[in-house]
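@here heads up, posting the sequence + SMILES for the adenosine-5'-triphosphate run so it's all in one place. Ping me if the SMILES looks off, I pulled it from an old spreadsheet.
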Amino acid sequence: MLQVHSLNKNFRDFRVLKDIYLNAEKGQIYGLVGSNGCGKTTLLKHIIQVYRQDTGEIYLDEEVIDENSEKIKSFYYVQDDLFFPQGSTLKSLFDYERLLYSDMSGEKFSKLAEFFNVDVNKRLSTMSKGQKRQAAFVLAMSANPKVLLLDEIVDGLDAVVRRKFWNVLIKEVMENEITVIISSHALKELDNICDKVGIMHEGEIIREEEMDTLKEDIKRVQFAVEGEFQETAGSAFTVVKSVKIGSVYFATLRGSVEDFKRSLEERYQVLIFDELPINLEEIFITELGGAGYGTEEYDAQ
Ligand SMILES: Nc1ncnc2c1ncn2[C@@H]1O[C@H](COP(=O)(O)OP(=O)(O)OP(=O)(O)O)[C@@H](O)[C@H]1O
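bot reply: prediction finished. Complex structure tokens:
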């Protein structure tokens, strides 16, 4: 299990990470999601030991991880802004990284390069953004890491390649019990992929939860009633947000849908009532809205 325990970091007088706790299990895909500039990349760079925290610890299987740990050699980080040495090709990087990672597999490298149709002898500097990301991913998976940190990895990938990417990732995680932490804004895709989610805002993980538990907590409903609906709170539910489109209301709730429906029926004649599937994007907006993020309305006048 990978754990971050009470981690704090200041860049001069800017408190970028505030008492971070993160827990990711073996064989788990952990989605690290959050507002722009909230500290996701900075947190990943602490886990991989690019940055040193002011206070707090990082553990893998209860062993403290620092830049001298033997276990850090089984961590692999694919960064957001990819950098490759001048003149390098994927093959030359593979030959170099073979010296750093003891489990680097030539067989997996060839198989994945072929699967993603990456030319291993082409200079990386001449590749497109999406091709570079695929090349970086091929290299990362070939290293057979125990902990894989992926920062905005699907950014710039077309829909077909994204699907291939998720496919490989899921199979590799299942087969080799890798712990994956993936920072991304692609919430619709993470929704289908992640076992657990950490929602970050302004340097804090404001919520960490198994995906299934998150989805039990927040609900979406659509309904239509005779007359104008007025928001109300009940003892077993809270209406987080409601909007009216045509004659139908869409509401996000916390708590019991049944109690909300009962409270509607007590006050109105209910014409339509349906519970809708909830997705990570909706949960994200609700949780960050609760933290006061993105709640303001734009007035064009
Ligand atoms: N080396 C640094 N020195 C000072 N401030 C930094 C440094 N690196 C990052 N920051 C600041 O720390 C904050 C967090 O940045 P970070 O890149 O971790 O955010 P992020 O969550 O990955 O954002 P995004 O989703 O926009 O990529 C930002 O305000 C950024 O300006």
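MO: Residues 11, 14, 16, 34, 36-42 surround adenosine-5'-triphosphate (CB under 6 Å).
MO: One more: The chain is about 30% helix and 30% strand.
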